[in-house]
Amino acid sequence: xxxxxxxxxxxxxxxxxxxxxxxxxxxxxxxxxxxxxxxxxxxxxxxxxxxxxxxxxxxxxxxxxxxxxxxxxxxxxxxxxxxxxxxxxxxxxxxxxxxxxxxxxxxxxxxxxxxxxxxxxxxxxxxxxxxxxxxxxxxxxxxxxxxxxxxxxxxxxxxxxxxxxxxxxxxxxxxxxxxxx
Length: 181
Description:
Layout: H1 3-25, H2 31-48, H3 56-76, H4 80-98, H5 107-132, H6 140-178
């Protein structure tokens, strides 16, 4: 991994590690803002599995723990692409709950929430770039296409060789028939 990639991933993940740890340790301060979002998510969680916790504080703590873990994975370069996708996923409910500028009547609060919403949108874009980054190596799509092309060429070569050997066998059989005995 290049130094620029390492530094960029550490810088991108820093906010998630710090805020995730803070939210895990003190989820109570976020409950009023998160409650509307968790109330909408709770029926889906209950349908998915009845033992999944649905309390707002617990969901905030779970989100914080995931952010810390995925942030550390992104920063260290371990499973960085999946970690970036996970962080992007955790950013969606955080942004919707924490910065609903469309609900604010006060111009100063609305402006502040718009700025933070756009900041989170920028972080989301950076995470998508990190998730797509193959570190200069060919991506899965290219490798699959390359492998398919290689296989096609191998099959064509095998067909040509088989035809050539069949022509040689036919000539040999014709020559053998002409020989006396």
